[in-house]
Design a protein that fits this description.
Layout lengths: L6 H24 L6 H14 L3 E2 L11 E5 L2 E3 L13 E10 L2 E10 L5 H19 L7 H14 L3 E2 L5 E3 L6 E5 L16 E4 L2 E3 L5 E3 L6 E3 L5 E3 L2 E6 L2 E4 L4
Antiparallel strand pairs: 1-4, 2-4, 3-12, 4-5, 6-10, 7-8, 7-9, 9-14, 10-13, 11-12, 14-15
Helix pairs in contact: 1-2, 3-4
The protein binds magnesium ion (MG).
Magnesium ion binds next to loops.
Amino acid sequence: MIIKKSQDEIRKMREAGRIVAEVLDILEEHVKPGVTTEELDRIAEEHIRSRGGIPSFLGYQGFPRSICTSVNEVVVHGIPDGTRLREGDIIGIDVGVILDGYHADAARTYPVGEVSERARRLMEVTLKALEAGIEACRPGNRLGDVSHSIEKVVREGGFSVVVQFVGHGIGREMHEEPQVPNFGPPGRGPLLEPGMTFALEPMVNEGGYEVYVDQDGWTVRTKDGKLSAHYEHTVAVTEEGPLILTLP
Ligand code: MG
């Protein structure tokens, strides 16, 4: 069952989403060669708590940190540690916040200094895919239209969509029904109605779509060792169309 939210609940998710966006903006200034992912985690947690929020990921199924930091061939769920970023890396950072009982969740991929043309294109296509998915979040469309819009942009860009991990409903819980795949045929799945809230999150690989989970039980990597990018927004379906909740 997809839990629809009242306007008041959506306002609460918007406030949580504002903190998420602030963290992603702040981190942008700190993503530089030499910084460790642990330092980024500390900066994020401090800001979330200073705004009265709680990091959604900390302790979630035992996850040990407040944000996920996924460098280069890491797709998602990388654990912040002493790893120093190097010129030319790309890093996906995923941030979730609970405020007043409601979650918001977003991610961006950042270049570390100058990155290759191919890395830049991978990031651009992934962001465009997310934007296409958001655009499809309107009443009268079906969930499959959202999934299909995302996949179409990725395919046209010549990259591959990760199928093993998907987007999700979000609200009082970080992960609610339904699953939101980043692929599939249009015109299928549940009809979208005002009040539905989704975390859309295309994970896009430079090479093949296959991924595996590292021995740490979290870190998801591309099987071929090539790059992966990840962007995410929390979005509400409204009468007027899609409303992005994770903006500053
Ligand atoms: Mg998510």
